[in-house]
Amino acid sequence: MADEADLAQEQMERAMAAAQRRHRRPLTVADSALICIECERPIPEGRRHAQPGCTRCVDCQSLHDNWRPL
User: Fold this and answer.
1) Within 10 A of 5 (CB to CB), how many other CB atoms are there?
2) Which residues pair with 35 in a beta bridge?
3) pTM above 0.90?
4) I want to staple 60 with a disulfide (CB 3.0 to 4.6 A). Which of 7, 33, 38, 45 is the partner?
């Protein structure tokens, strides 16, 4: 008979397997955000095609990539 710890372990393993399947799936233009998560301006269609799965516009992504803590 399974106890609560066994059930929790099984649930966690199922969640991890699902996350791994999603991670391995290639990103598509449909996975890209339409609005930048930083500045909330529209992300141009060309950027969404060039970088499937993007969530930031080019300007905000450049700032994000080049940010260094003090």
Assistant:
1) 8
2) 42
3) no
4) 38
